[in-house]
Amino acid sequence: MPHDARILAVDDREENLTALAAVLDALPVEVVPVTSGQAALKELLNDDFALILLDVVMPEMDGFETAEHIKARPRTRDVPIIFLTAGGGTGEQAFRGYAAGAVDYLTKPFDPWLLRAKVSVFVELHRRNQQLQQQARLLRQTLDGEGEGSPAGCDRLLAALDQRVARIEADVARLRSGEPADELDAHVADLRTALDALAAGG
User: Fold this and answer.
1) Which residue in 32, 44, 35 sits closest to 69, CA to CA?
2) pLDDT tens digits for 55-105?
């Protein structure tokens, strides 16, 4: 990853934020701690986050209300939210959490390994989504910015596609020699995204 994914941790108790940062310390993430829903909404105005870890029980604006504000904003509505709460695992609270747009709901004390595993999944999804968006932008810039059909634009586009095909060919060669090719699926998806972007740009 070119840089650490940013995780927004929201809890009114400093010791809980410190514990969250310690649990996630082994992951390639930057934990941004805030102590209120209002502070979380302010932080989300300017920065992008891969995931939000949101406490339910907070004064003034609780986690459910904070989540509703987050999901109401076009800029942040797609950011996944995991609720963390010491309020008990009642079905009603869990239902409210999912209804507010959460992707998961964990009760404290939570299993650190489980939380790390869940965070890792969303960080990886965020990383791949960013890569795909960047590749689509680059391909469209090649077509539009250089001038559609221009020699420079065509050369850059062909070079980009050739590079992706070469990665797949290398993966296939590894498979034929009995070696693992763990990135094959990702490289095929990468090429498909490039071709889709080309079709959209045309």
Assistant:
1) 44
2) 988 888 888 899 999 999 988 988 999 988 876 555 666 777 777 777 888
Distance CA 106, CA 94 (A): 9
**Helical (H) or strand (E) element with 40:** helix 37-46
SS3 81: strand
Interacting residues of 125 by C-beta distance below 8 A, sequence separation 6+: 50
Token representation of residue 127: 């990383």
Dihedral sign for Cα atoms in the order 11, 109, 93, 100: positive
The pLDDT assigned to 140 comes to 67
| Peptide bond between residue 109 and the one before it cis (omega within 30 degrees of 0) | yes
Handedness of CA 129, 131, 134, 140 (dihedral sign): negative
The CA distance from 199 to 193, in Å, is: 10
pTM assigned to the model: 0.67
Regions in the chain scoring below 50 on pLDDT: 1-2, 147-148, 202
Query: Positive or negative, the Cα torsion across 139, 122, 72, 44?
Result: negative
Q: From residue 93, how far is each of 50, 116, 201 by CA, in Å?
A: 24, 23, 46
